[in-house]
Amino acid sequence: MDMHRHSHLLLLLLPLLASQPASATPVWQLIRRDVGTVQLPANLPVAEMSGVTYLGPVDGQLRTHRFLTANENYGALLAFDLIVNSDGTIGNLNKLITGATTLPLGSTNDFEGIAYTSAARNSVFLSDETGPNVREYSLATGSLLQSVSIPSVFGASMRSNRGFESLARSPNGATLWTANEEALAVDGPVATTSAAATVRLLNLNANGTNYSVGSQYAYQVDPIQSPGNASSQSGLVDLTAMPDGTVLALERSFSSAAFPTIFRSRIYELNFSSATDFGGAFASGLVGQTYTPVGKSLLWSGVVGAFGENLEGLTLGPRLDNGDWVLVGVVDKDSADPLSMNSVVTFVMRAAPAADFSQNGAVDAADYTVWRDNTGLMVGATNSLGDADRDGDVDEADYAVWQNAFAAAATATASVPEPTAMMLLALFATGFSARPVLLRKSQPPYGLARSRRPNYGAITPNCFSSSRV
Fold this sequence. Notes:
Distance between the termini: 74 Å
CATH architecture of the largest domain: 5 Propeller
Largest sheet: 4 strands, antiparallel
Number of domains: 2
Order of helices and strands: HEEEEEEEEEHEEEEEEEEEEEHHHE
Oligomer: single chain
Strand order of the largest sheet: 1-20-19-18
CATH topology of the largest domain: Tachylectin-2, Chain A
Radius of gyration: 23 Å
Helix content: 10-25%
């Protein structure tokens, strides 16, 4: 082919290439660990655990952690206590130390996603699929604290029972994320065994303790597993925010024709770098519009249980002593599903450390300057602010990553700045006094020093009832 014809072909292809999701190497590695069954008293039934959120360690026991689930049609929230081993597996598998906590909020709500705020505010945000709605409730009284305004296109074009299945809150509380489970009617068809579907990721921004509508992005959900039938579907069922701001998406595919694997789950790491933020535009639909969807990198694809259980909720849990993080998932078990159990699944998330904070393609003195200038930022720090190990803060551990990478770089010509103890003390003093702190480490559950974790033993002084087996 001559170069003239080749250049014309490239011009024709550019619009197509620009519309593709951005590909990137994931910064997190996911490792599947364990599965267990929640055992609860007979007088407190548990069913349809659609969403899950992490409250924190229980009574100072660093291996025992409390989680709160949204029970889809039970009209209540329910808590369970989970023992987590040092490698992220479940302690005493199938003999979990469990507790039960209920907060009746009305059986007319179709709870799906759930996100805890903090011990000080003692509340949760819940996504209600039927609205679709995002509301905040007090855990002490069950009272409604706020109802977030949602763009009208979601309610007007939502397919039945395919609304806000997901909900995630960033560790610093700056943002909430939610999405419709399957494509809105104005955005195109639902997924098939041969074609993906497009849903909308909705970002809600914090202004104090209140949230308002922010960005919107298109997200492509994978096709249905083969073979499919009339009842088959594929959708986005939950979102999770990592300490460094990375967003994870949990997709679920269902096909009763694909027996014995009825449900298949996938967890993706999202990349927004080239995605189109269309904000309040495209209210009439995405069909015929020009945009670039969010990029995504597959971290895990598989099944829970022998036949594939309905994994529907996912949350970031505690940090392990080796620096890894635990992801906890829950299975939505309902009366029409004979294969799923009230299961809890654990994964381990391992960060890929990176010291090129200035993002100039090299580990150099410019990166040291970024680290130095941001030392003292606590939760909510990103890699570009000096968070090398992606735990949401900037500290000595991040300097060690930079120092090792700088020393190993073949192009490094300058000597490694070796901070003295007095220098580090001065840096931290400057960081804490002259720089806004996003969220202190003593505020659970992210970035906590092991010896400083608060006691979560009494989080329900007014309306909660608890029991333990």
